[in-house]
Structures are given as C-alpha cells and as structure tokens.
Design a protein that fits this description.
single chain, about 350 residues, mainly alpha, Rhopdopsin 7-helix transmembrane proteins, two-stranded antiparallel ribbon, 13 helices, about 80% helix, about 0% strand, disordered C terminus, G protein-coupled UTP receptor activity, P2Y purinoceptor 2, transmembrane, transducer
C-alpha cells in the first residue's frame, strides 16, 4: 500500500492506499463548486429580489442557501489542495476556516432542514395552532439560534485543525494532529449525537406523524390536496438528502475513527478509510440538492424560476404571434364577406 498524503499514518503500523483521492476529490469538489455556485446564486437572487413578503419557510431556506454559499466558495481551495497531492500553500488560518466551513455547512444544513420539517409538520398536523406558532419573527429568531449553536459547536475545529510540514508539502489536516486525535474523536462523537442523531430522529418522528395524518381519509379540497402533495415531495427530498449526503458520511466517519483507535487489521482499516474518503464528497453535495428542495417546497419559488426562464418568454411570444395571425386571418375573410354581400345587393338592385 502507498502511504497516505496526510502524513498522519506514517506513525501507524498501517499505510493507507489513498492515491484515488487525488482524482476523486478534486473532480467531485469541482463539480459541486460549479453546480452549487450557479444554483445557490439563483436561489439567493430569487429570495432577495423576487419573493416578497417572506414566510417562515422562506426564512429557513434563505439561511440554508447562505450556509451552502459560504461553503461552496471555499471549495476551489480544496480542489487545488488535493490536485497538488495535499500541498496547502494558503496558510494555517485558511486551512482552519475551510474545515470549519465544511462542518458548519453540514450541521447548519441539518438544522435548517429540521426547521423546515417541523414547520411542515405543524402545518399539516396542527393547522390552526400553526397560525400562531409559525410567524416570520419566530423563524428569524430560530435561525439566529441555529447559527449560534452550530458555530459554537464547531469552534473547536480552530483548535484541532492545523497545518504541518511533511517533506516538501504542507498538510492541512481534516481531522487533527496525532497527539490530540483521541480528544478529536470524543468531540466528533458529541457532534454525531447532538447535531446529527437528535435532529435526524426528530425528523423521522415528524414525518411518520405527517404521513399518518396525510393518509387519513378526509373531504379534502383542492387546496388541501395540493398542500398534501407538496408535503410528500418535501418528505421525500429531505430524506433523500439525509440518506445520500449525511448518513453515509457520519456512519463511515464514526467507523473510521473507532477502527483506528481499536488498531484493527490493516486491510479492514484501508477499506473503511476508502469508504470514508468516498462519502466526504457526498456530504458536500447537499449544497447542490438543497436548491432542488426550494423548488419543490414552494410554489412561489417555482413561479419565479419559470417566469425568468426562456420557456416562459417563448410561450408569451408564441401566444402573441398566434393572436396576431388569427386577427389578420379574420380580417380578409370579413372583408371578402362584405364584398360578396355588396355585390349581391348591387345585383338585386
């Protein structure tokens, strides 16, 4: 096996084969950067200039888009870093900020998805009470609290993450140095329990109760039927983000840390190391999936996206063209009928 570029494993008895990540990570981060940048700029533009007034869901989605954008703009640094086989020329401060933005985006995304899910749950299961609870002012307060909690919980990243010289390369650790690795594992487990397991459990409970309410037979109007369909779409999309992006990353990261502490067989360690590195880009991909959630969640967002598209403009031009041509085609016919009528009148005379 080839030794890992991180430099950490040189002190372990196992050397990990990590050459694959010098292709996988730059390519995947580059794709997430390109797609995520376009989608989140479009989302922020719509939130800021096309949607007025905001409701509670819009407030949570806007904060989610801000979180995604902050992370996306840091990805070119990681693309360069891994394409140069882990050589970080940007200094220790930017290394810490980049790793901080990754974890902050991950857990802000989880918590704002939780807020959106609770908002939808209250609207479906407690429609009358939700009119009092689901106010924009409350959503703004909750958003500020989310930012404070997540930023505070991720602030130890500035302590654990650092740079280190390894030959000619400067390494930007994505975990910690070896001397504080045990403490970092404990810190990661606390994050796992409080910032992932608890929100994920609440989301599952909310969605189970929502599905039970939606499936109840009722004399539904067209409006309530559309609301139920939208709720189902949100359920599917949020669960998809968790299952594809967050769940594999947290499971494999936990196993990776735990197996390293247990000092298992090198083949097992190399396999779980491979799985962990592969799931890191999946966690980043939530920055691309979140704008799809905005589109599915709100009719206002869909209407603004469609109204700005070329399809809508072409449709308007086509409609105008048809109307104009129908008018022109009627005019000659009417004039011909008038002419024939006049001729008949003159013949009778």
């Amino acid at each position: 096996m080839n030794s890992t570029g991180s430099g950490q494993n040189s002190t372990y008895r196992c050397e990990f084969d990590e050459d694959f990540k010098y292709v996988l990570l730059p390519v995947s981060y580059g794709i997430v950067f390109g797609v995520g940048l376009i989608l989140n700029i479009l989302s922020l533009y719509i939130f800021l200039f096309r949607i007025k007034p905001w409701n509670s869901s819009t407030t949570y989605m806007f904060n989610l888009a801000i979180s995604d954008m902050l992370y996306v703009i840091s990805l070119p640094l990681l693309v360069y870093y891994y394409s140069q086989k882990e050589n970080w020329p940007f200094g220790a401060a930017l290394c810490k900020i980049t790793r901080f933005l990754f974890y902050t985006n991950t857990y802000c995304s989880i918590f704002f998805l939780l807020c959106i899910s609770i908002h939808r749950f209250l609207g479906i299961c407690y429609p009358m009470k939700s009119l009092v609870w689901l106010k924009v002012r409350n959503a703004r307060i909750v958003s500020v609290i989310v930012w404070i909690i997540v930023s505070g919980c991720q602030s130890p990243i500035f302590y654990f993450v650092t740079t280190r010289t390894n030959g000619d390369n400067t390494i930007c650790h994505d975990t910690s140095t070896l001397d504080v690795f045990d403490d970092f594992v404990v810190y990661s487990l606390v994050n796992l329990a409080l910032l992932f397991c608890v929100p994920f459990t609440i989301i599952i409970i909310c969605y189970c109760l929502m599905v039970r309410t939606i499936m109840k037979p009722s004399a539904a109007t067209a409006q309530t039927s559309a609301s139920k369909k939208k709720s189902v779409k949100i359920i599917v999309m949020v669960l998809l983000v968790f299952i594809v992006c967050f769940l594999p990353f947290h499971v494999n990261r936990t196993l990776y840390y735990y197996f390293r502490k247990m000092d298992l067989d090198c083949n097992i360690l190399n396999a779980i190391n491979l799985a962990y590195k592969v799931t890191r880009p999946l966690a980043s991909a939530n920055s691309c999936f979140d704008p799809i959630l905005y589109f599915l969640a709100g009719q206002t967002v869909r209407r603004n996206i469609i109204s700005r598209s070329g399809i809508a403009k072409m449709k308007n031009k086509f409609s105008t063209f048809v109307l104009e041509n129908n008018w022109r085609s009627e005019t000659p016919d009417n004039s011909n009928r008038d002419t024939r009528s006049n001729q008949c009148e003159s013949t009778r005379v």
